[in-house]
Amino acid sequence: AGCGTNKSSEDGSAPKEGEKKLEDFSIVLDWYPNAIHSFLYTGIEKGYFAEEGLNLVINFPSNVNDGISMPAAGKADIGLYYLQDAILTATEENVPIVSVGALTQSSLNVVVALKDSGISGAKDLKGKKIGYSGTSLSEEQIKSMLENVGLSAEDCQFIDVGFDLMTALTTGQVDATIGNMVNHEVPQLEENGFAINYFYPTEFGVPQAYELVFLAGKDAVEKNPEKIQRFLRACQKSFGDMKENPDESLQILLDNQNAENFPLSKTVEQKSMETLLPVMETPEAPFLHQEVDVWQKNADWLYERGILSQKTDVTPLVVNLVD
Amino acid sequence: MKKNMPSALLVLILLMLWQGVAMGIDAAYILPSPTGILVRLWELRVPLFTVHLPATMGITALGLLISVVLGLLLAIAMDWNPKLEKALYPVIVASQTIPTTAIAPLFILWFGYSIWSKVLVTILMTFFPIAITVFDGFKSTKREMEELLFTYGASKKDVFLKLKLPTALPHFFSAIKMAIPLSVIGAAIAEWLGAQKGLGYFSKRMMTQLDGAGVFAPVVLLSVVAMLTVWVITMIENKTITWRKEL
Amino acid sequence: MKKNMPSALLVLILLMLWQGVAMGIDAAYILPSPTGILVRLWELRVPLFTVHLPATMGITALGLLISVVLGLLLAIAMDWNPKLEKALYPVIVASQTIPTTAIAPLFILWFGYSIWSKVLVTILMTFFPIAITVFDGFKSTKREMEELLFTYGASKKDVFLKLKLPTALPHFFSAIKMAIPLSVIGAAIAEWLGAQKGLGYFSKRMMTQLDGAGVFAPVVLLSVVAMLTVWVITMIENKTITWRKEL
Amino acid sequence: MLRFEGVSFRYPEDELGMMEKLSFQVENGELVAIIGASGCGKSTIFRLINGLEKPDEGKILVDERPIETIKNYSAFMPQKDLLFPWRSIEKNVCLPMELAKVSVEEQGRRTEKVLAQVGLLEYAKKFPKDLSGGMKQRAAFARTLLSGADMLLLDEPFSALDYLTRVEMQEWLLQQWVHYHKTILFITHDVEEAIFLAKRVYIIQDSRPFTEMECIEVPLDYPRNREDLKKAEIVELKESLIGKLRRSVSL
Amino acid sequence: MLRFEGVSFRYPEDELGMMEKLSFQVENGELVAIIGASGCGKSTIFRLINGLEKPDEGKILVDERPIETIKNYSAFMPQKDLLFPWRSIEKNVCLPMELAKVSVEEQGRRTEKVLAQVGLLEYAKKFPKDLSGGMKQRAAFARTLLSGADMLLLDEPFSALDYLTRVEMQEWLLQQWVHYHKTILFITHDVEEAIFLAKRVYIIQDSRPFTEMECIEVPLDYPRNREDLKKAEIVELKESLIGKLRRSVSL
Ligand SMILES: Nc1ncnc2c1ncn2[C@@H]1O[C@H](COP(=O)(O)OP(=O)(O)OP(=O)(O)O)[C@@H](O)[C@H]1O
Ligand SMILES: Nc1ncnc2c1ncn2[C@@H]1O[C@H](COP(=O)(O)OP(=O)(O)OP(=O)(O)O)[C@@H](O)[C@H]1O
Ligand SMILES: Cc1ncc(C[n+]2csc(CCO)c2C)c(N)n1
Ligand SMILES: [Mg+2]
Ligand SMILES: [Mg+2]
């Protein structure tokens, strides 16, 4: 294993020796595999990636931001990450990254609290302990929600709980968490017998966004766009299967799950799938489609909130490689 | 000053190398340059020095203090009573092999996000090395000297005070010097598990934002503080122990 | 066997206490009971033993090996050349104060999810203590003995082989025994930072699911392995070093 | 009174026993020398008296009480100086008094006196590593004298001293003995020293294990004079003692 | 040939110098004794010859070459035994030969022979801690003899030995000397020993710093006989030597 500074040379220029020899293509997920990732497993199972000459290697993130840092450092071909965080990191830290596709057309991120806590909207968050995954935007989202309802965020406590969003909430370590997915955490908590309240940050002034986007290294996209195109094509094909036959797709996911590590509940994932399918592809936008406009709106909002230090044109961040 | 020249030179060369490589890579989120780190340290001086440094220092100081007291007590107890030694020593050695960091998340369930969950991690990291090193120090007293004291009718306490304590003193210093970095590591780990302030927390936060220089700034701060402490202790040691090669 | 009785008894009492408290709390995610952990260990035996244990052992073994080799080489080099010592020793001591864990997330950016990012953390945790302890061992040779060898016309190499090496041997053993638990902790930390397998990783995942017994199962496994290794090394040490109190 | 009653002893490392059913006794206030070939077991006898080794068989009594039951009955000057490197000479000499809880002023007084007598006053503040071999031996001797015990066990106390210093130390020891009338056992390789100092001389002979020690009375009264050593009977005694020293080692 | 040329030396810890402008010389193949009061600086002279201390002034030459430029010219037997605790007696004795790259068989042969001569053959496999004080001293002596150097420096080599063992060791040393004709310097407190062994005796007198050593020729030829010591002139010499030993210490 080498020290990877000359990142693109290994990935980009591997010669294709016919159909047999598959090229490794590594992806870093945003979270542990769940329904939203079904299409990837389906694609592997059905050989769609192999058809494109790719051997898809799925990595789970070990840090919350691996989805952006690994492709940026050239240690992965693609990563799944959150749109607003991607804008922030890419512009503020000059991380050479571009988005090559959107996974969902709307936000899924919700604030969750136990019913007992009496938190049912942004106004109740004042002075509470709020757990988040360490993405700095979560803090800003809470603050902006509070200000949106005319409160100040002064005495909110933010606690970085990493991947332990659900446990921090259920064990009473925090009063509310942000960074839960409406499709997964919500039904999961309900199935586990917790009565919860949840609400979207978008209800309180945070702009709609493609929750998750595919990020690739700028270099890699410029030097070898074709490789990523192949990946995206296979994804689209896989998503087609997922849409056609969600149960089969889910089953493949469940078969591939790492039960000892992150067991999935079939009923929860079924609910999740129901929530997801309508937002991953809409009548207006096909799967993976993204509009620079949505990006720009978010960037402008970030600037207004004082999070982005400059007004930024995000056009270079968005590259549509397939349609 | 003069005798530190070679070392200063080496550090300088290493820093220059680092700077060179960092400038070559030119991606602060992969490897920030030393100058970049310094700049960031300056920019962040207010939160770092007023909030995060005190928080981490509090954890390490408290943790170290408790560890030293506990470790010494345990070492003394084991030296005092062979039964206790037989019972405790293997357990201590064994307990040292427990990867405390792995169960550290549980501490948060026990103590919440209070300082104690972090102090506990620090204690668990430093307590065992101190106890064992000091105890080994007690054990390494010269047999013949112990016998001599015994013939003077020395009580156990006398043997302890007059012979074992001086013999173990160098070990005690080594233990402290070993424990300081460990306590810092312990605190950094603890702050990862969940904290609202502290240099470890700060560093992690910067990592999430891929702010490489920001990751290093608190690390540099922490190790400067640790270095100073180790240096002070070495000074005290050199003043105290003049007979190392004569025993 | 018999001489381990007190220790076995103590462990038993502690375990029973633990069991009692755990049953009192009756919330495995806060404090699992020892029996619960054993049951879980049994249930999880296949993935633990076939996947995660080998992964972690690989990291620690590789890390330790490199650390020992590097640490010894460095200690020898510093002993060999006073200039090197002057240059390196302060740097090594200082570098020990760097909370490596805090910058460890960067290693993943350097080495990706390969084993090397984890091995690096392990090395950084164990390398310095080994180098320093062994070097201190070299330094603690008795002055008069060194002088004697010198009058025999011993070369530097001779003094090293005939005097310093035997003198430092006990230090070497201490260093190894200290490094083993540290390497395990290092591996556990590294696996936290990013891994797809390994006992530390496994334990962390179990935490996310609030499976308290599942958190402890790999921890128990790890420390049993570490304990066995330390035990083996202690056996070797006792066979080798019969003159500790005579020097 | 010190009494060995049928004491047997063997070092676990050795095949042959050291001594078997050894009995002898030393009265209170006696000054007794032990001589014998190198490695014959002299130091071992001291180790037994001090309780540093346990007899395999038999009893060792001091004032009719088994030594296991009493404390502080003897002061031992070992063959090696065993000065503590972290204590100055002064502090080293104080050690037994510290243990006996002697007041600090008293310690200071006695230390000063004894250091003057062994000729180390100007070295009081130095550390053992700065002293010559003979000086260290004198410091160890001074330390032993200041322990309050009634029985002194001296293992080759003057071996590293030059002739004159040695003679002075011997004379000084005799004075001390006459003054305080402590029981003194000492090991020496210097037959003349044994005769000059001791009332009785025990000789360990070569057989291994040895079962008895021959005892020879020195026909001199105290106070003694160096000139006495030139008396014909004493010169003869000396020759006969040397003759009696059969080595257990085969050269 | 060993020559001191105006050597001055002072331990940094001391105020007073140890020696000043000291000059003397020892011919190759000579056997020379050094006597002097305890703490007068005898061991220090050996440390200087060995290069363990550097003279503040003056030169020390061996065979006309400054000692800094040569190696392996002397074998030193220190006052303490300094046996390595991790080596058996056998291995301890081998040490200088290992350093001189003597073949293993040769080492074995010589070790066995010398151990037999010092009466430690059956202790060859034992470790230092299992030996008596005198035995350790003999082991250290054996070790020194086996170092190949042409000049032996013996610091009180026989101080811990009983009279008979000591006499035998002395005689054996003389034999060795006659046989190999090495240069031997030894420190002793036993004036008789000095006279019996040495051709010349250096006496260090009390003034501090000392500037010269008085040299006395022993009027005896080699090989010598113990009986010679009873000659009137030798007895007289002995008395006069003792008379000359002025202590530098004030008792
Ligand atoms: N390492 C040292 N550092 C400082 N002073 C020392 C050192 N070694 C010896 N001295 C001093 O030097 C003087 C002479 O010491 P040296 O060992 O040469 O005496 P010596 O003639 O061998 O005496 P002895 O017969 O008692 O062994 C002593 O007064 C001692 O205090
Ligand atoms: N700790 C020990 N372990 C094993 N054997 C020992 C130990 N100490 C001494 N011996 C053995 O016991 C014998 C007698 O030793 P001791 O020290 O009593 O002799 P010594 O008469 O004092 O001789 P010296 O005059 O040489 O000091 C020796 O043969 C030695 O090998
Ligand atoms: C199933 C599932 N649960 C939680 C997250 C984490 N997450 C969702 S939104 C958000 C905040 C981004 O600023 C975070 C951390 C996920 N990715 N997938
Ligand atoms: Mg003895
Ligand atoms: Mg001397």
TrEMBL record, chains B, C:
Chain ranges of the ABC transmembrane type-1 domain: 53-237
Domain of life: Bacteria
Membrane-crossing segments per the record: 51-76, 88-113, 119-138, 172-195, 215-236
Signal peptide as annotated in the record: none
PROSITE patterns in UniProt: ABC_TM1 (PS50928)
Compartments, as annotated in UniProt: Cell membrane
Gene3D superfamilies to which the protein is assigned, alphabetical: MetI-like
Membrane-topology annotation of the record: Multi-pass membrane protein
Keywords: Cell membrane, Membrane, Transmembrane, Transmembrane helix, Transport
SUPFAM superfamilies per the UniProt record, alphabetical: MetI-like
Keyword set includes Iron: no
GO CC entries: plasma membrane
Similarity-based family: Belongs to the binding-protein-dependent transport system permease family.
Protein name: Aliphatic sulfonates transport permease protein SsuC
Lineage of origin: Bacteria, Bacillati, Bacillota, Clostridia, Lachnospirales
Automatic annotation (TrEMBL), chains D, E:
Annotated protein name in UniProt: Aliphatic sulfonates import ATP-binding protein SsuB
UniProt keyword terms in alphabetical order: ATP-binding, Hydrolase, Nucleotide-binding, Transport
Occurrences of domain ABC transporter (ranges): 2-231
Transport listed as a keyword: yes
Organism: Anaerotignum propionicum DSM 1682
EC number, as in UniProt: 3.6.3.-
Entry keyword Glycosyltransferase: no
Matching InterPro entries: AAA+_ATPase, ABC_transporter-like_ATP-bd, ABC_transporter-like_CS, ABC_transporter_ATP-bind, P-loop_NTPase
Enzyme class: hydrolase
